[in-house]
Amino acid sequence: MATLCHSAHTRTFGKIGRRNAAKVLCSTQMPPSQSTIKVVIIGATKEIGRTAIAAVSKARGMELAGAIDSQCIGLDAGEISGMEEALEIPVLNDLTMVLGSIAQTRATGVVVDFSEPSTVYDNVKQAAAFGLNSVVYVPKIELDTVTELSAFCEKASMGCLVTPTLSIGSVLLQQAAIQASFHYNNVEIVESRPNPSDLPSQDAIQIANNITDLGQIYNREDMDSDNPARGQILGEDGVRVHSMVLPGLASSTSIHFSGPGEIYTLRHDVTNVQCLMPGLILAIRKVIRLKMLPKIHNLAASSRWKPNTCQQYSGKQPW
Length: 319
Hints:
elongated
């Protein structure tokens, strides 16, 4: 608490004439209140969970309040994350107990869910019961689950973000692709992944989905889908994707546009899980202001793809 004293000079008139008097006015100025966001991480022992523990602990205005997992129970969250000092927060397998302790403090809280598709709905519902909003990053989540979450959050007036990616670079790549799609008639996606997984990847599906139904038919001169060497066509607008899987190769996504006399290439490389942390921190700050699950175009529109083309919102957990 800071006290500021101001000296105000006044003039008074009386029988004895004019005199100066100093009157001290003191006012009290309260410092602006800053509410710390208490964060609970589900899936804390996964690589992305351990990285998130360190990122949240270092983020301004945030505090790790719980680490939930069925592995490493009892170990300190800071130690399993490789931090120099222990956080004195043990890994627990009791989400209800952690949420209850946060609710008693009436603090602003957010649950970050890195778990499995089968548990996401119950986790979000349980968090909402204690007044906490949720950020969900589970790439294999089904569209039906997201639809159910949307209906629940709207009814409960609770905020939730179900994000297909936490990479800011990936989002910027997709936005740039949408802008470029209005100016080029030919486009092909080339991606590489270090490990075999459901291909094409979710990133490629999102990109193809974003530039589909924009009134553009791509690669009109080469619509043949019988030649495997020409890659797989996603959707009905002719977007092709070529997937490479090479051990030791960094995850990379390139989008090649071409027009008369020029080629325009967009590329995004991912070297490790750290690339997701700025997006995670941004999502946590955003979700506390929400009262529903906002419509995510990339996710909701993924149902357009036919099962024999690619699995809806599929893809193994990258970390």
